[in-house]
Amino acid sequence: MTVTNPTYVIRRAVAADEPAIQALVRSERLNPHHLYFRNFVVAVAGNDLIGACQIRRHRDGSRELGSVVVARPWRGRGLSVKLIDRLLADEPSVIHAITRKRHADHYARWGFEPVPSHAAPSAIRRNYRIGSCIGSLMAVLQRRRINWLTILRRPQRPSLAEETRAVA
Ligand SMILES: CC(C)(COP(=O)(O)OP(=O)(O)OC[C@H]1O[C@@H](n2cnc3c(N)ncnc32)[C@H](O)[C@@H]1OP(=O)(O)O)[C@@H](O)C(=O)NCCC(=O)NCCS
Protein backbone atom coordinates (compact mmCIF):
# COMPACT_ATOMS: atom_id res chain seq x y z
CA MET A 1 0.00 0.00 0.00
CA THR A 2 1.24 3.50 -0.76
CA VAL A 3 0.12 6.49 1.30
CA THR A 4 -0.34 9.59 -0.80
CA ASN A 5 -0.77 13.23 -0.03
CA PRO A 6 -1.27 16.00 -2.61
CA THR A 7 2.41 16.91 -2.29
CA TYR A 8 4.26 13.70 -1.48
CA VAL A 9 4.11 9.91 -1.73
CA ILE A 10 5.15 7.36 0.90
CA ARG A 11 6.36 4.03 -0.50
CA ARG A 12 8.91 1.22 -0.12
CA ALA A 13 12.35 2.38 -1.27
CA VAL A 14 13.86 1.16 -4.56
CA ALA A 15 17.55 0.77 -5.43
CA ALA A 16 17.70 4.20 -7.09
CA ASP A 17 16.75 5.82 -3.74
CA GLU A 18 19.81 4.51 -1.88
CA PRO A 19 22.22 7.45 -2.49
CA ALA A 20 19.57 9.99 -1.42
CA ILE A 21 18.68 7.90 1.66
CA GLN A 22 22.35 7.78 2.68
CA ALA A 23 22.77 11.54 2.13
CA LEU A 24 19.67 12.40 4.18
CA VAL A 25 20.55 10.05 7.07
CA ARG A 26 24.18 11.17 7.19
CA SER A 27 23.22 14.87 6.98
CA GLU A 28 21.68 14.43 10.47
CA ARG A 29 24.66 12.43 11.76
CA LEU A 30 22.51 9.40 12.48
CA ASN A 31 24.08 5.92 12.46
CA PRO A 32 25.72 5.79 8.98
CA HIS A 33 25.83 1.97 8.81
CA HIS A 34 23.40 -0.53 7.30
CA LEU A 35 21.58 1.90 5.01
CA TYR A 36 20.27 -0.66 2.51
CA PHE A 37 17.30 0.47 0.43
CA ARG A 38 15.42 -2.81 0.91
CA ASN A 39 14.84 -2.02 4.59
CA PHE A 40 13.49 1.49 4.02
CA VAL A 41 10.21 3.28 3.53
CA VAL A 42 10.65 6.74 2.00
CA ALA A 43 8.65 9.92 1.38
CA VAL A 44 9.18 11.53 -2.01
CA ALA A 45 8.02 14.94 -3.26
CA GLY A 46 8.62 15.29 -6.99
CA ASN A 47 12.21 14.18 -7.47
CA ASP A 48 13.22 14.90 -3.86
CA LEU A 49 13.55 12.30 -1.14
CA ILE A 50 12.16 14.17 1.89
CA GLY A 51 11.91 11.47 4.54
CA ALA A 52 12.99 7.94 5.40
CA CYS A 53 12.96 5.28 8.09
CA GLN A 54 14.01 1.66 8.19
CA ILE A 55 13.96 -1.62 10.07
CA ARG A 56 17.53 -2.89 10.46
CA ARG A 57 17.81 -6.66 10.37
CA HIS A 58 20.61 -7.71 12.70
CA ARG A 59 22.60 -10.94 12.49
CA ASP A 60 21.19 -12.15 15.81
CA GLY A 61 17.71 -12.01 14.25
CA SER A 62 16.60 -8.85 16.05
CA ARG A 63 14.99 -5.95 14.20
CA GLU A 64 15.45 -2.30 14.99
CA LEU A 65 13.41 0.70 13.91
CA GLY A 66 15.89 3.42 13.01
CA SER A 67 17.18 6.10 10.62
CA VAL A 68 13.98 8.11 11.14
CA VAL A 69 14.66 11.36 9.34
CA VAL A 70 12.64 14.11 7.67
CA ALA A 71 14.16 16.93 5.59
CA ARG A 72 14.08 20.19 7.55
CA PRO A 73 11.51 22.09 5.45
CA TRP A 74 9.05 19.20 5.85
CA ARG A 75 9.21 18.80 9.63
CA GLY A 76 6.35 19.33 12.08
CA ARG A 77 3.61 18.08 9.71
CA GLY A 78 3.31 14.51 10.93
CA LEU A 79 5.48 13.09 8.15
CA SER A 80 7.66 10.94 10.42
CA VAL A 81 4.51 9.46 11.99
CA LYS A 82 3.18 8.51 8.54
CA LEU A 83 6.53 6.96 7.58
CA ILE A 84 6.63 4.83 10.73
CA ASP A 85 2.93 3.87 10.30
CA ARG A 86 3.72 2.61 6.80
CA LEU A 87 6.90 0.81 7.84
CA LEU A 88 5.34 -1.01 10.80
CA ALA A 89 2.11 -1.90 8.99
CA ASP A 90 3.92 -4.75 7.18
CA GLU A 91 5.91 -5.92 10.18
CA PRO A 92 4.43 -8.46 12.61
CA SER A 93 7.74 -9.42 14.32
CA VAL A 94 9.18 -8.01 17.54
CA ILE A 95 10.74 -4.60 16.86
CA HIS A 96 13.14 -2.66 19.06
CA ALA A 97 13.97 1.03 18.91
CA ILE A 98 16.60 3.17 20.64
CA THR A 99 15.53 6.70 21.33
CA ARG A 100 16.05 9.60 23.69
CA LYS A 101 14.26 8.99 26.99
CA ARG A 102 12.25 12.16 26.56
CA HIS A 103 10.84 10.89 23.23
CA ALA A 104 9.87 7.42 24.48
CA ASP A 105 6.18 8.33 24.96
CA HIS A 106 5.95 9.30 21.28
CA TYR A 107 6.40 5.62 20.33
CA ALA A 108 3.61 4.31 22.59
CA ARG A 109 1.09 4.84 19.73
CA TRP A 110 2.75 1.90 17.92
CA GLY A 111 2.82 -0.29 21.03
CA PHE A 112 6.47 0.36 22.01
CA GLU A 113 7.34 0.12 25.70
CA PRO A 114 10.64 0.64 27.51
CA VAL A 115 12.65 -2.49 28.32
CA PRO A 116 15.79 -2.75 30.48
CA SER A 117 18.92 -3.08 28.36
CA HIS A 118 19.73 -6.52 29.81
CA ALA A 119 16.41 -7.80 28.35
CA ALA A 120 17.27 -6.63 24.81
CA PRO A 121 18.98 -8.77 22.13
CA SER A 122 22.74 -8.37 21.88
CA ALA A 123 22.76 -6.32 18.64
CA ILE A 124 20.31 -3.82 20.14
CA ARG A 125 22.35 -3.63 23.38
CA ARG A 126 25.49 -2.98 21.36
CA ASN A 127 23.88 -0.09 19.41
CA TYR A 128 22.47 1.29 22.65
CA ARG A 129 25.93 1.25 24.28
CA ILE A 130 27.58 2.86 21.23
CA GLY A 131 24.83 5.53 21.01
CA SER A 132 25.04 6.26 24.74
CA CYS A 133 28.85 6.59 24.67
CA ILE A 134 28.91 8.85 21.61
CA GLY A 135 25.98 10.93 22.92
CA SER A 136 27.60 11.43 26.33
CA LEU A 137 30.97 12.30 24.81
CA MET A 138 29.40 14.87 22.46
CA ALA A 139 27.42 16.40 25.35
CA VAL A 140 30.59 16.80 27.42
CA LEU A 141 32.53 18.29 24.47
CA GLN A 142 29.66 20.65 23.64
CA ARG A 143 29.00 21.45 27.31
CA ARG A 144 25.33 20.60 27.19
CA ARG A 145 22.95 18.22 28.99
CA ILE A 146 23.29 14.53 28.19
CA ASN A 147 20.33 13.17 26.18
CA TRP A 148 19.87 9.82 27.91
CA LEU A 149 18.77 6.98 25.65
CA THR A 150 16.31 4.19 26.27
CA ILE A 151 15.48 0.89 24.55
CA LEU A 152 11.89 0.30 23.46
CA ARG A 153 10.23 -2.89 22.31
CA ARG A 154 7.06 -3.54 20.33
CA PRO A 155 5.82 -7.10 20.94
CA GLN A 156 5.10 -9.53 18.13
CA ARG A 157 1.82 -8.91 16.28
CA PRO A 158 -0.43 -11.47 14.66
CA SER A 159 0.31 -11.52 10.92
CA LEU A 160 -2.45 -10.45 8.51
CA ALA A 161 -2.93 -14.13 7.56
CA GLU A 162 -3.37 -15.12 11.24
CA GLU A 163 -5.83 -12.25 11.81
CA THR A 164 -7.82 -13.32 8.73
CA ARG A 165 -7.92 -16.92 9.97
CA ALA A 166 -9.06 -15.73 13.41
CA VAL A 167 -11.95 -13.75 11.88
CA ALA A 168 -13.02 -16.57 9.50
C1 LIG B 1 12.64 13.48 14.56
C2 LIG B 1 12.08 13.83 13.18
C3 LIG B 1 12.18 12.62 12.27
C4 LIG B 1 10.60 14.22 13.37
O1 LIG B 1 10.04 14.42 12.06
P1 LIG B 1 8.67 15.20 11.84
O2 LIG B 1 8.07 14.78 10.55
O3 LIG B 1 8.90 16.64 12.04
O4 LIG B 1 7.83 14.64 13.05
P2 LIG B 1 6.25 14.66 13.13
O5 LIG B 1 5.72 15.96 12.65
O6 LIG B 1 5.72 13.40 12.50
O7 LIG B 1 6.01 14.46 14.67
C5 LIG B 1 6.69 15.23 15.60
C6 LIG B 1 6.93 14.26 16.71
O8 LIG B 1 8.28 13.82 16.62
C7 LIG B 1 8.81 13.79 17.92
N1 LIG B 1 10.24 14.01 17.85
C8 LIG B 1 10.88 15.16 17.68
N2 LIG B 1 12.22 14.93 17.71
C9 LIG B 1 12.38 13.58 17.89
C10 LIG B 1 13.50 12.71 18.01
N3 LIG B 1 14.76 13.20 17.95
N4 LIG B 1 13.29 11.38 18.18
C11 LIG B 1 12.04 10.90 18.24
N5 LIG B 1 10.94 11.68 18.14
C12 LIG B 1 11.12 13.00 17.96
C13 LIG B 1 8.11 14.90 18.65
O9 LIG B 1 8.12 14.61 20.04
C14 LIG B 1 6.70 14.84 18.08
O10 LIG B 1 5.97 13.90 18.86
P3 LIG B 1 4.44 14.10 19.26
O11 LIG B 1 3.66 14.01 17.97
O12 LIG B 1 4.16 12.94 20.17
O13 LIG B 1 4.37 15.45 19.90
C15 LIG B 1 12.81 15.05 12.55
O14 LIG B 1 12.81 16.12 13.47
C16 LIG B 1 14.26 14.73 12.16
O15 LIG B 1 14.51 14.28 11.04
N6 LIG B 1 15.22 14.97 13.09
C17 LIG B 1 16.63 14.66 12.83
C18 LIG B 1 16.89 13.16 12.85
C19 LIG B 1 16.52 12.53 14.18
O16 LIG B 1 16.84 13.04 15.25
N7 LIG B 1 15.84 11.37 14.12
C20 LIG B 1 15.37 10.68 15.30
C21 LIG B 1 16.33 9.65 15.74
S1 LIG B 1 16.35 8.21 14.69
Tell me the layout of helices and strands.
Elements: E1 3-4, E2 9-12, H1 18-27, E3 40-45, E4 48-57, E5 63-70, H2 79-89, E6 95-100, E7 113-115, H3 122-141, E8 149-154, H4 160-167
Parallel strand pairs: 5-6
Antiparallel strand pairs: 1-2, 2-3, 3-4, 4-5, 6-8, 7-8
- Tally of DSSP helical segments: 4
Helix content: 25-40%
- Report the sheet-strand fraction: 25-35%
* Distinct ligand kinds: coenzyme A
How many domains in all?
1
Strand order of the largest sheet: 1-2-3-4-5-6-8-7
CATH class: Alpha Beta
Radius of gyration: 16 Å
Q: What overall geometry do the principal axes of the alpha carbons give?
A: globular
Features:
168 residues, alpha+beta
Folded structure, characterized:
The protein is of the alpha+beta class. It has one domain (3-167): Gcn5-related N-acetyltransferase (GNAT) (Aminopeptidase, 3-Layer(aba) Sandwich). The protein has four helices and eight strands. It has an eight-stranded mixed sheet, with helices on both faces. β5, α2 (79-89) and β6 (95-100) form a beta-alpha-beta unit. The radius of gyration is 16 Å and the shape is globular. Coenzyme A binds at residues 28, 30, 66, 68-70, 75-81, 99-100, 103, 106. Coenzyme A (COA) is lined by residues 28, 30, 66, 68-70, 75-81, 99-100, 103, 106.
